[in-house]
Specification:
By secondary structure, this protein is of the alpha/beta class. It is built from ten helices and 14 strands. Bound molecules: adenosine-5'-triphosphate. This is ABC-2 type transport system ATP-binding protein.
Length: 307
């Protein structure tokens, strides 16, 4: 659906925000662009959508070069911006219909109705935007982006700053759109969001794509958790009876650290077996805590790995 080739962007002040990016987005997938603040997510989306000029490279949208064949490329794209930029006094129906008109598409009330129903905004179609909740306003932005029947929808941080309930609601909406055949590209800081939503994840850091991976495979790689068991008495070495568990000794023998795959559904975490074996060898646990790799840890290790 989208092909990005050798894309670089240097801003007027000399800052290079994108460095030689190659990326292919498949038709019908949800692709999450995951990266820390300032990584270049918005810039990349803006270049693909034709809002910012590339310094080098090119972008094809369904085979159409987004510079040489701008109209055809842009028409296939719907963009939901990061900021809520709705006019306050127009109605839901009018603002969504107007967005369609911007693309020179003939009026099609049946399509607008379909979009509003899909986003559960139909009941609110005669309301002015200032009368809507924050979640509804976000959905109006999606409706506007879908008004001209794009094939691919870009969502820039669709759930930044929204509460858990609303985030889940947004996920449902986005999944529904994918099921209707829309290709979706979203940016996010939240690894949970990427995990929950995306078929594939691209990690961007300092303007470089450091990894593109199937979500399931990536979570297997990143989903490892650590369980630290503080012991009553220090050990000199790990007892042979525990050699079947992925254990290391820490804190001068006062703690055992167990690493396990938090995403494994087949084999479980192995924690209950470990605890049983600890008891069997007479080790007493004083305290325990778990820790999951933070997004930052993950980025750091990914970047290290790919250097
Ligand atoms: N017009 C501009 N001129 C100069 N630098 C810019 C401009 N726009 C963005 N940048 C810089 O490019 C880098 C990438 O910005 P971008 O907005 O793409 O990041 P992001 O990954 O979307 O971050 P966030 O998660 O915070 O939205 C940042 O360092 C930013 O300061």
């Amino acid at each position: 659906m989208i092909r990005v080739e050798g894309l670089s962007k240097t801003f007027a002040d000399g800052f290079q925000a994108l460095k030689d990016i190659d990326l292919t987005i498949r038709r019908g997938e949800i692709f999450a662009l995951l990266g820390p603040n300032g990584a270049g997510k918005t810039t990349l989306i803006s270049v693909i959508c034709g809002l910012v000029n590339a310094s080098q490279g090119r972008v094809l949208v369904d085979g159409h070069d987004n510079v040489l064949d701008y109209r055809a490329a842009r028409q296939r794209i719907g963009l939901v911006p990061q900021e809520l930029t709705n006019e306050a006094f127009v109605t839901v129906w009018d603002t969504v219909s107007f967005s369609r008109g911007l693309f020179g598409k003939p009026k099609d009330p049946a399509h607008i109705e379909k979009v509003l129903r899909a986003l559960t905004l139909w009941e609110k179609r005669h309301n002015r935007l200032l009368e809507l909740s924050g979640g509804m306003k976000r959905r109006v932005l999606i409706a506007k982006a879908l008004a001209h029947e794009p094939d691919v929808l870009f969502l820039d941080e669709p759930t930044a700053g929204v509460d858990v309930e609303l985030r889940r609601e947004m996920w449902e909406v986005v999944r529904g759109l994918r099921d209707q055949g829309v290709t979706i590209i979203l940016t996010t800081h939240y690894i949970e969001e990427a995990e929950e939503m995306a078929d594939r994840i691209g990690v961007i850091r300092n303007g470089e794509i450091v990894l593109v991976e199937n979500t399931h495979a990536l979570m297997q790689q990143l989903g490892s958790k650590e369980l630290t068991l503080h012991l009553h008495e220090a050990l000199e070495r790990i007892p042979p009876a525990l050699s079947g568990h992925a254990l290391t000794l820490a804190e001068e023998g006062h703690a055992l650290v167990y690493t396990y795959d938090a995403t494994s559904q087949q084999d479980g975490t192995g924690i209950s077996g470990l605890l049983a074996d600890l008891e069997a060898v007479g080790l007493q646990v004083k305290d325990l805590h778990t820790r999951q790799s933070s997004l930052e840890d993950i980025f750091v290790s990914l970047v290290r790995e790919h250097r």
